[in-house]
Design a protein that fits this description.
This protein is α+β, with helices and mostly antiparallel strands and 328 residues long. The protein has two domains: 216 residues, 3-Layer(aba) Sandwich (Rossmann fold), CATH 3.40.50; 99 residues, no CATH class. Helix content is 25%, strand content 35%. The strands form four sheets. The chain has a six-stranded mixed beta sheet with strand order 6-7-8-3-9-10, with helices on both faces. The chain has a five-stranded antiparallel beta sheet with strand order 13-17-14-15-16, with no helix packed on it. A four-stranded antiparallel beta sheet has the order 2-1-4-5, with helices on one face.
Length: 328
Amino acid sequence: MEARLEGVRFAYGDRLVLDVPDLRFEAGRVTALLGPNGSGKSTLLRLLAGLERPRSGRVLVGGKPAPEARASVAYAFQEAVFLSGSLRANLDLALRLRGLSPRERRSRLAEAATACGVGHLLDRPANRLSGGEAQRANLARALSLRAPLTLLDEPLAGFDERGRGRMREELPALLRRFAGTTVLVTHDRDEALRLAADLVVLCEGTVRAAGPGREVFASPPDPDTAELLGYTLLPAEAGLAGVAPGALRPGLGDVTFSLEVEEVVDIVTGVDVIGSSGGRRIAVRYPPGQPLPAPGEQVPVSAPTEMVVSFTVPGPETVDRPSRVSVA
């Protein structure tokens, strides 16, 4: 099921939270909304769910205004909230509200709970689940609906590091099995690129970039977007150079910068040389066995041309445009 925002503006009082002229979520695809706190990600999700109404414009889900399409939407809120009673009762309630028969409810409940790793917890009081268990149960509740549009707000929040890693591996298969079109919110770049085919970058309530994740990552349209995507921004002749995450290496190369070493940190699998370049703090991984510089030294670091984009510094009548840096 396709979802779309057309000319949408949303505000809390006098504060404009979202300004989205046109944004489409393609049917059957997983899209990640990426942005910092306060960028409007959760608000956009609530608009798609029909829980909020825009000040202007339209939010369409399957061609219908979002409030009229609520029966086609499943929503897993960031905080897992359950009523008193067992986990089974809580999951069953969501299905019962959709008017499903008892037999269908039992089948869907058991299937989603087992797939999400909480099948053995169904008779436990829902308020006695651990953080990770509650998040898995929260996901199971949404996925059991098998909705044409599934909305997930920070689905990996509440897990410890190990649980987060496992859930990051499991979630794509769960979405293929139980969800149709999926829109998920995250502020973590790696999660966004791993979980979703498409990426929407939000900053200060506006869409800075949207499209297939690989394309958005390869060509960030402005420095703010590049920084959100993990690029290292360094001064260059034309303005700023954005170096893709992990692309900086010690020594001369296609695009070379000078690093003033401040500290050298041994992390066992390698050594991080940390310092400043053009007034910006950066870290470069040195492989085992390579001679290490000392604090105070100036050393060259570089990146391949294809891993660097440049941004002109905007003047009164110019706008940032990305281009590939081709010379050092």
